[in-house]
Write a structure and sequence with these properties.
Elements: E1 6-15, E2 18-28, E3 33-37, H1 44-51, E4 59-64, E5 67-68, H2 74-79, E6 82-84, H3 97-103, H4 109-115, H5 122-130, H6 146-159, E7 164-168, H7 176-191, E8 195-199, H8 203-209, E9 212-217, E10 220-225, H9 234-241
Parallel strand pairs: 3-8, 3-9, 6-7, 7-8
Antiparallel strand pairs: 1-2, 1-4, 4-5, 9-10
The structure holds adenosine-5'-diphosphate and magnesium ion.
Adenosine-5'-diphosphate (ADP) binds near residues 20, 40, 42 and 43.
Amino acid sequence: MAGKLLELKDVSKAFGAHKVLDRISFGVSAGEIVGLLGPNGSGKSTALNVISGFLPSDGGEIRLQGDNITNVSAQRITGHGLVRTFQLPSMPHRMTVREVLQAGASGNASLASMLKPFRFDDELDELLESFRLTHVADLPASALSGGQKKLLSVATALRSKPKLLCLDEPTAGVHPNLRSDMVTILKRYRDKGVAILVVEHDMLFIRELCSRCVVLDRGEIIADCAPRELEDNARVVEAYLGKAV
Ligand code: ADP
Ligand code: MG
């Protein structure tokens, strides 16, 4: 896996006796979009939490651009260029949508107020526009709907110019029309060299966006292939595609 932007080797995580990740290995190359799939409870969010330093792993090694980031703090990992969003984003109180975007992924309120005088920020206005948040830009971020919070968290993550963006179910709760907009936006960032690891259930979104999919089931990776190959994989159909998840 030499030369990968992100490399996981034999990464494990258990909660008590429950082995959620059992020596999983995969990689993400620069400029690649990889889907992380699997039934509910298969460990997708746990994998993102371990990769981004929000949970310690029990074993194995994680490298970002060759640097060992295993069990390094989330803050330092962000400094290495890995930015993530959460399945259920929480928004800071007393900050408007625009201020959250201004502060970037750090959610740093004092930074936002420092930046406040720079009202004419093309990239910020462009992000608000692309994610259809312009009309709510001056509302408190905590007042947004679940879908709008998702959009704002993805926009905020992009704003901090990540090398690797990890997204946890970015389209859950988002209107279907906006999902295709998100595909277009994410591809634009991929074309600028951003790598993306995305947990997602919407197969249309996956097929349009991802060049590869890693499928988790009961602690193991049961497939690592192109999206179009998933339907021909009996284990994937049995564990995931053929079931309501
Ligand atoms: P997914 O994102 O694929 O739906 P998760 O990674 O959230 O799955 O969870 C995988 C399993 O680990 C689930 O059985 C869940 O209950 C368990 N789990 C996740 N986080 C914790 C935790 N902090 N403590 C105990 N069990 C957890
Ligand atoms: Mg999850």
